[in-house]
């Protein structure tokens, strides 16, 4: 029986019908009837009812992994043989899905009035050229501009990803539970054209299918606000033309250790970039009328993009107030003056309160620099 099993090579099947034909041959070579295969499977603890087996062997679709595994085992295959069959099933399913050509466009819009970060954009390009698999982590404290940088890079690189862009907020620091990889994979697989009933129940198989799909295509995956390496491992592309951009408030060195994923730690904007951001937001030459006060305002905001934007909103809301006055108020009490009345969720307090106790020392230094 072993010999006849070895003679059947699942990787020779290039389509679902060919794979099912090979499974029929496997059953025939075992010398067992369908009923006997089913009984053996049951004796081994695998559920494989006769009716299921008969139906699967008469259809042209790739059967579910549990069915294939039970059949191969009952016909005398060892675990290595089971793996080989399952890998081929995943390959064929992925190729079938690739043929449906569904192109997801999940990126949120490009950030408004994005300013500076030329050096960082260039570093991302460099990291992604050399990293394998192609992934990079953008790390830094709340409000430093990780998501904005990731989205800006993504929008300017759309041509490199003709097979689409996937985006998820992993809710690593949003006060609710971080998203688990399983449901994220489900969402991504269906976005790439997998029917919900074709998504494997088993986590490892799900991840394998995702990697197969990404390997066939050039897709950008933006994994925003990640919590831990464990949350990310199954969401990274393997080999092939796809790329992952990850943002996180903590360094995820575990990913560097296990997957060689490089890190880019974001610093606050340069003072010149801060001035450009204020200019882009406030407009009408107000920055030019009192550049010294604008510099002071940028300093009071610690050159943190979130703080700068909130300060710019205050300036727009109170045109009677000079930039110098706002600078003085913010220097006195940053939190109180950088919250947006009526939009508490967007304010600095909301962003920082959630995370202060989860920050590491380097993050705290940045916040301390602006007196928070
Ligand atoms: N380089 C930049 N130019 C203009 N606005 C920026 C820049 N970086 C960040 N912002 C803005 O600052 C705010 C906070 O940035 P965000 O990317 O959400 O921070 P993070 O993801 O690090 O918490 C957002 O409103 C964002 O659009
Ligand atoms: Mg973010």
Describe the SSE topology.
Layout: H1 2-6, H2 16-30, H3 34-43, H4 50-58, H5 65-74, H6 79-100, H7 118-130, E1 135-139, H8 146-156, E2 165-169, H9 181-191, H10 203-216, E3 220-226, H11 229-232, E4 243-248, H12 253-259, E5 263-265, H13 271-282, H14 286-289, H15 291-300, H16 305-317, H17 323-332, H18 334-337, H19 348-353, H20 361-369
Parallel strand pairs: 1-4, 1-5, 2-3, 3-4
Helix pairs in contact: 3-5, 5-6, 6-10, 9-10, 13-15, 13-16, 15-17
Bound molecules: adenosine-5'-diphosphate and magnesium ion.
Describe this structure in words.
The protein has helices at residues 2-6, 16-30, 34-43, 50-58, 65-74, 79-100, 118-130, 146-156, 181-191, 203-216, 229-232, 253-259, 271-282, 286-289, 291-300, 305-317, 323-332, 334-337, 348-353, 361-369, and strands at residues 135-139, 165-169, 220-226, 243-248, 263-265. The protein is of the alpha/beta class. The protein folds into three domains: 2-100, 434 Repressor (Amino-terminal Domain) (Orthogonal Bundle); 118-265, 3-Layer(aba) Sandwich (Rossmann fold); 271-369. A five-stranded parallel beta sheet has the order 2-3-4-1-5, sandwiched between helices. α11 (229-232) links the parallel β3 (220-226) and β4. It is elongated and about 90 Å long. The model has no long low-confidence stretch (mean pLDDT 86).
